[in-house]
Specification:
By secondary structure, this protein is mainly beta. 9% of the residues lie in helices and 42% in strands. The protein is globular and about 65 Å long.
Length: 382
């Protein structure tokens, strides 16, 4: 048979496969792998990952160190096994596509690809140093907080020992060359590390306020702080970030508390305020006047709050909807999802009504989960 005809037939078959089956088919042979590069594949729709809870009262043989993945479009569940017993005592701080920023009970950070099980271990926090030469010592508490002791080694003086929680974190990974960038906040400081660095570096913004949330796009970090202002840093200018812009909510009499930042497909940064649980307002800034206004539509996009991004609303992804999992309150307090009255769901942004519920994912499980996150699955590329 004509080799080109074989290739065309393989392409026709592969374009009809589900996301998972497509990537499995790529491994069949060199012909199938070549055919995959010419396929017009549907976009990867949002999936859920559920992390197992560390339930101390259960017998050892009942403990499952795997994570559960769920594809809502095909209504299929998958299990990622052999992630190690430390996954039970590890917190997920942020994600980017299939990569997750994890923190274990020994205060060690690592990156985990939930589909390939690849791991990148990040430097010890003992390597952390501020731009002013201050050293830090971190001790993990039982929950998601630290006891941080700061030292100024020039004078050999202990400056402070205080308990802090991680305020926010962001992760960016280049799927092709595995470059990565990590930032997380504690107190009024931001710690960052990128591939190729020897350790962690710490800096503060000119506002010297606690970080509420942040988002990273195209080498720029946008940081939301307590007074609702947003400070922007450029990490493409050398070893240290350059603060280049600040946006302030001008109407100080409006009782709005921003909780999240989101970046859209076009690169626009949005601020989100929480009114009631699962009821929110989305704000867009006019860059000329620095004024914020409420928007009720994302157009042909959907919002993944866990990844702080919007995605195209097509191939089964619901238009102008919020993909919601358990919020930061539940995560910080190590609550099991089965005990949480805030369901995993999809919410219409215009009406704030729930259009999809996923209670069955936790109700049908014999073991509880401690966290659920929406993510966009990828295999080695966009």
């Amino acid at each position: 048979m004509d080799p080109m005809l074989i290739l065309d037939l393989v392409i026709l078959v592969m374009e009809r496969l589900s996301f998972v089956d497509f990537h499995r088919a790529r491994c069949v042979s060199s012909v199938w792998y070549s055919a995959s590069k010419s396929c017009r594949m549907r976009q990867a729709n949002p999936w859920l990952v559920l992390f197992p809870a560390d339930v101390l009262h259960l017998p050892l043989e009942s403990i499952d160190d795997s994570c559960k993945l769920f594809d809502p479009i095909d209504n299929k569940s998958y299990t990622v096994r052999d992630l190690g017993s430390d996954i039970l005592r590890t917190s997920c701080l942020a994600s980017d596509n299939s990569w997750f920023l994890m923190l274990d009970r020994k205060t060690r950070f690592y990156l985990l690809n939930m589909l390939t099980r690849e791991r990148f271990h990040l430097p010890s926090l003992d390597s952390m140093e501020s731009t002013e030469g201050t050293k830090f010592k971190f001790k993990r508490n039982f929950d998601s907080s630290f006891t941080v002791t700061t030292f100024h080694y020039k004078d050999n003086v202990t400056l402070l020992s205080t308990c802090y929680g991680i305020g926010a974190a962001v992760l960016w990974v280049d799927e092709r060359n595995k470059d990565y960038f990590v930032v997380w906040a504690f107190d009024r400081s931001l710690a960052y590390h990128k591939k190729g660095d020897d350790g962690w570096r710490v800096f503060r913004s000119s506002t010297n306020q606690m970080c509420v949330d942040m988002v990273f796009i195209e080498s720029k970090l946008y940081v939301l702080v307590e007074d609702r202002s947003i400070t922007a840093f450029d990490f493409s200018c050398g070893d240290s970030p350059m603060e280049f812009a600040s946006f302030t909510f001008r109407d100080c009499y409006v009782p709005i508390s921003f909780k999240h930042l989101v970046v859209t497909l076009s690169g626009q940064v949005l601020a989100i305020s929480r009114v009631l649980r699962q009821v929110l307002n989305i704000y867009k800034m006019d860059l000329r006047s620095s004024e914020w206004s409420i928007i009720k539509s994302l157009g042909d996009e959907a919002l993944l709050l866990d990844q702080r991004i919007t995605v195209p609303a097509k191939d089964g992804v619901l238009k102008n909807c919020l993909y919601y999992s358990n919020d930061r309150f539940g995560r910080d307090n190590d609550l099991c999802l089965r005990e949480d009255d805030s369901p995993i769901c999809v919410v219409n942004i215009q009406t704030m009504s729930k259009v999809q519920l996923f209670n069955h994912l936790t109700a049908s499980s014999p073991l509880p989960f401690k966290d659920a996150r929406w993510f966009v699955p990828t295999f080695g590329g966009k």
